[in-house]
Design goal:
By secondary structure, the chain is an alpha/beta fold. A 7-stranded mixed β-sheet has the order 6-5-4-7-8-11-10, with helices on both faces. Strands 1-2-3-9 form a 4-stranded antiparallel β-sheet, with no helix packed on it.
């Protein structure tokens, strides 16, 4: 096995799972498959890799929403529950406030800035960004999620896989909130964002922080089956560099939900 981030071929086993941990969503497509997986860590860049033979390719085209939210009513109820959280308990409020502070300092005062949010899910983040005056476009591969965002949030919505969506539209900000850990080639996905990034634009990335989460053991959301990768501080920086970006800032935090997170703002290399 070769690390997809740094190319190193030496790893150590961090965790072994012979059954789903209590915190993990049960996916119908995987219910009849023998469950075994490992979390291994690259000894060079400290990137965490999920080693398993189970095929997860289909879950984001329907199984993820069905297993997590059940149906359209469940999506709506969960959306309303999350947007009703007080600000001190909301990951999304903290995320939006951080983005607005950083971009205001970076660009100065601005109006009508555009943002493309890749992997929008319930649409909470697009909803909050819209309330702050951003011109928002949401993208999600699940038809039910895309329909919910379009109808309830009221922003432009694209349904599809980001790798397969061809558009000449340029955005001032492109966001990947807890997305890159779910895809087989995070470097390629991040690099593709340059096609739609406006001159002087920024990319914002959030990923699980494996360095700190591993200290709390395996019963963490960071290490559930839907995460193909869990990033280290080093591997996130290398991912950005190989995708053609300079990290302007990288920081780690513990969110109100107790998730350990790495976040970074990226500028395209000239």
């Amino acid at each position: 096995m070769e690390c997809p981030i740094c190319g190193n071929d030496t790893f150590r086993v961090i965790f072994k799972f012979t059954e789903p941990p209590a915190i993990e969503t049960r996916y119908p497509a995987l219910s009849k498959i023998s469950y075994y997986r490992e979390t291994q860590q690259c000894e060079q860049c400290l990137h965490f890799i999920a080693v398993q033979e189970m095929d997860l390719s289909a879950i984001y085209e329907g199984d993820y929403v069905s297993a997590t939210y059940k149906d359209k009513a469940g999506v709506q109820a969960t959306f309303e529950k999350i947007i009703s959280l007080p600000s001190h308990r909301s990951d999304n409020t903290g995320r939006v406030n951080s983005i607005n502070r950083f971009t205001a300092d970076y660009w100065g005062e601005f109006e009508n800035k555009s943002v493309l949010d890749v992997g929008s899910g319930l649409g909470v983040f697009p909803y909050l960004m819209k309330t702050k005056g951003w011109n928002v476009t949401a993208l999600d591969p699940d038809q039910r999620a895309a329909q919910h965002i379009s109808e309830v949030v009221g922003v432009e919505t694209i349904c599809g896989d980001f790798f397969n969506v061809n558009s000449d539209q340029k955005y001032d900000l492109i966001t990947f909130n807890k997305v890159l850990e779910h895809v087989k080639d995070p470097i390629a996905m991040l690099a593709k964002s340059k096609d739609n990034l406006a001159e002087g634009g920024l990319v914002y990335v959030e990923v699980p922080d494996g360095d700190i989460a591993a200290l709390d053991g395996s019963e963490r959301e960071e290490f559930t089956i839907d995460h193909l990768y869990i990033f280290s501080f080093i591997s996130l920086a290398i991912t950005a560099d190989k995708a053609g970006f300079y990290p302007i800032m990288i920081e780690r935090l513990k969110e109100p939900s107790t998730k350990y997170t790495l976040r970074t703002f990226l500028k395209r290399k000239e």
